[in-house]
Amino acid sequence: MYSKKSGRAPKGSVGIESFRGRLRIRLPRHLYDGKQKYLSTDLADAAINRKVVEAKAKLMESDIALERFDYSLVKYGKPKPAQLAALEPAQLQSMKVMELWERYAADKRSGLKPKTQEKYDNLTRLYRKLGEVTIDEPLIVKQKLEQVTTIYRTKDGLMYLAAACRWGKKHKLVSSNPFEGMAQELPKYRYQVDPKPNAFTEEERDRVIEAFRRDQRKGMNYSHYAPFVEFLFCVGCRPSEAIGLQWQHISEDFGTISFEGSLVQIGNRRIRSKGSKNNKTRQIAVSRRVQALLESIMPEEPRPTQLVFPSRDGDSISYRNFSRRAWTRIVNPIKPDTTPYCCRDTFITTQLIKGVPSTVIAKWCDTSTQMIDKNYADKLKLAQIRPQD
Length: 389
Hints:
Elements: E1 15-19, E2 22-27, E3 37-44, H1 47-65, H2 87-93, H3 97-108, H4 114-128, H5 138-148, H6 151-170, H7 190-193, H8 202-213, H9 226-235, H10 239-243, E4 256-259, E5 261-266, E6 269-274, E7 282-285, H11 288-297, H12 319-331, H13 342-353, H14 358-365, H15 369-384
Antiparallel strand pairs: 1-2, 2-3, 4-7, 5-6
Helix pairs in contact: 3-4, 3-6, 5-6, 8-9, 9-11, 9-13, 13-15, 14-15
């Protein structure tokens, strides 16, 4: 007898399936040399229509048993050849969003940095909110994302689904990429609209460093972090790189630093990540000011893996806690609405003002000359050049 796709059907049986809301008949493979064939009915999946299709399926089974089956399918109401479709293309495009994403994320997992893995985990939780939606319903996916999250997370979600579909096409899991270009149709990210660096002036920089040094309040004070803050301002590295810096990365004369990784915060844990954000390591020379700073804070006999800038209790610095507490408490009275990452903006801006080429700054800071020229140099030129009277 025919089946309704519930369990494995007996060999030679005719099946009935609902595909995209329409009923179709699944024919036994042995009739067509092992190939899966279907007869589309164009009938909606409703109780009354299912009875009609069941009768047609019984007729087919009877004709197969009596060896009078009409291979042209005209007898069974085949309207035109185009409606007789092979199994594979239809199944490929009807893959569920979560199924494709989980397979894509699992394949990429081994090469992801901890911070990127955290982003993938957050996207997995987001896509689970979509339910059973398939990838061939991109507008429904977009609408559901907009209902459960912000416009910028929706943009992120569509961008990563497009990447998953490109991967799926490569591995023949899907036949097309309905999400291609959808993210670009949404509003630009804030940093794309106005990628303005938030730098301190040299005077503000020195006031911040001095404020940390002089913080001698009873109980909780933050003078311990003055060297860390000065280092961020004077080297231009990412905060996570400074947090993960060990004494084995500092040369004997304190004049050279090797940045080989970072400590990133994932939830409540700090995880060491090899290489920079751009998967690079770099060795840079530092100023005499930084040399003197490192020499002044070096323990008598530091272990190679000992942190250069530990927290007050000797553990690694929690960037989140430092930003919310120490930075806010000390820096806001001097310059509000900043973060420790603004130290990097300050270093790049200061070096440009002093005439250091952007190609050199880019290598010091592990970024591109295009990024520096677009986001820093051009804005400095506009700020300093005045129209002529």
